[in-house]
Please model this.
Amino acid sequence: MSQELAAPVPRLTVITLGVSDIRASIAFYDALGFARRLKATGEAVAFYDTGGPVLALFHWDKLAADAKLPDNPRPATFRGMALAWNCATRDEVDAVLAFAVGKGAALLKAGHETDYGGYSGYFADPDSHPWEVVVAPGIEVGEDRRVHLAE
Model:
């Protein structure tokens, strides 16, 4: 008789971004105010405390090799994913967009009303990873910096 394995607890713990210039990316994410942890890794990999899943920066070619994916050709534009920076108000969305652009991000889309009753805009980091900055109904960010979803 075979014994059924218990299903593992699903969790998202780290989001790793492949980057071209790790020094520039570290400077950018430091400037945004994320707290870098495990600095002993030097420039091999950088880890940031986000209040939820960890954000990791890793050399693009090494990340591709680790995942057994081709390093080239690199997509120059949208990769089918976006990171999100949830906010409490529309004013905060505009402030975060302006702040990120001031730190070297490219503005992809200015803050605007959404069709679901929210407000959002987009910026791209130095490697063109898109970030949505958003306030949305049913999604709140607590004092613990974690996202809380309505039932």
About this structure: The two ends are 40 Å apart (CA to CA).
